[in-house]
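Supplementary Text 2. Reproducibility record for the structural model of the 329-residue chain.

All settings were left at their defaults, and a single model was retained for analysis rather than an ensemble. We include the record here because the model underlies the residue-level annotations in Supplementary Table 4.
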Amino acid sequence: MVQTKKRNSSIELLRIIAMIDIVMFHYLSRNFNLYAVENSRIAEDVNLWKEMIFQYIGYLGVPCFMFISGYYGIKFKWGRFGGIVEQCFFYGIVSFVGLWLINGNRPPFYELLAINNYWFMVSYLMVMLISPALNSIIGSLDSKQLLLVILSLYAVDFGGVISSHSVGGGFATLMMIYLVARWMRLYLPELLKKHSVWCFLILLLIQVSLVSACYLFQHIGIKVIIGSYDNIVNILIVGFLVITIEKYHFHNKFINYVALSNLSVYLLSESGWGQIFFNDLYIAWGGNEFQVLPYLLSSVIVFAVIIVIDKIRILIRTSIFKVINLIKK
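Retained model, structure tokens:
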């Protein structure tokens, strides 16, 4: 009897945590104007250091999510690809209707094309499309050749953080994370894998210390580089975290079931309507000052609510197709 390989629930749980992290990052950054911060804010906002630390932790959510895909390798399937595109359009419609009801005026029609409203989804789908070619190329390269490709891509991509004249865009960012993940899976020395938890903790401590130094020495603008998705240190941090978590292999059907709807959380919470609707929860609990527990709990609630919505969507979709199939017969 052939046994099917079960998904590692420790990694699926990490996906869930990464998505909750992403949700908190976005609402924290928007509500406290953390995307672009000037030094004058130090005297005005007593919670700024704490906000910056948690924003940095939030920055790690996207690289972590993508790193997992790269670490295990994307196995392209048209059904999976089409399912993600379908999700994008579904939540685009939800956002369109929601904005119409809230504002009383019809939103622009591009709201229906949710796939155009999220840099991550567009870039992720592009990586998915070329993943068979990527995997084939990776398989034909040795460790040094793959590193050279990564460094060349990194030089272009990270250059966009330093100068606007050198921009790789979201696609290049995700592709770089994908390639780094594949290299770490295939070629990372066993000694580093064995001590991955210490590598993770040391690098994380360095980055948090750098963010703190930006605050203490009033050079807050540098935090953009420290927290960038293109910063190789951040990719290594999530990489060592994934390697560490993978060691604690277990199987849980509920965790795996919830993780299947992870992308829906991003799609709805970051939709035009979602940003308005769910933000009321953060304001009601946290008020005008950042508090860790209210923001964390609010993000967990947003995650849970959207997961339930997506499961209902899947149930309705499945029922419709069953009816269609019965009619055809």
